[in-house]
Amino acid sequence: MGGELFRGLRGGLHSFVATGGGRGETGVMCRSIKTLRPPALPEEATEEDIRAAALQYVRKVSGFRAPAAHNREVFDRAIEAVAEATAELLGGLEVRGVPARGGAAS
């Protein structure tokens, strides 16, 4: 779906988002999203780890480091939705040699 929107953009979608979509926003993110499951993370991801990853994801996808006041509510809802989906994913993953975490974290 989104591929059609960004076809023909020099550098592709990543370049478009990283530069703020050509609208002058600074979209360069301060860090990458890290892997939140063993063995990359020796212990279970904390709620803080999951929320930080969700924030980075929403920043990257939106192209905004911080939203304007009129976008704050939708930005915050997106962070919550991504954090919830991430916790559910991590709770259900089965990694070889590591038992499942037994359900989604809340």
Describe the structure.
The chain has 106 residues and is mostly helical. It has a domain at 31-92. It has helices spanning 2-6, 12-18, 47-62, 72-92. The chain is elongated and about 45 Å long. The two termini are 31 Å apart. Mean pLDDT is 74; it is low at 1-30. InterPro entries: DUF2277 (IPR018735). It comes from Streptomyces gancidicus BKS 13-15.
What is the compact description of this entry?
With 106 residues, the protein is mainly alpha-helical.
Global geometry: elongated
What is the strand content? under 5%
Distance between the termini: 31 Å
Q: What is the average per-residue confidence, as pLDDT, rounded to a whole number?
A: 74
Q: Please outline the major beta sheet.
A: none
Number of DSSP strands?
0
- Counting helices, strands and paired strands, the structural category is mainly alpha
Radius of gyration: 16 Å
Number of helices: 4
Low-confidence stretches: 1-30
The run of helices and strands is HHHH
Proportion of helical residues: 40-55%
Protein name: DUF2277 domain-containing protein
InterPro entries: DUF2277 (IPR018735)
Task: List the main descriptive attributes of the protein structure presented here.
DUF2277, DUF2277 domain-containing protein, disordered N terminus, mainly alpha, about 110 residues
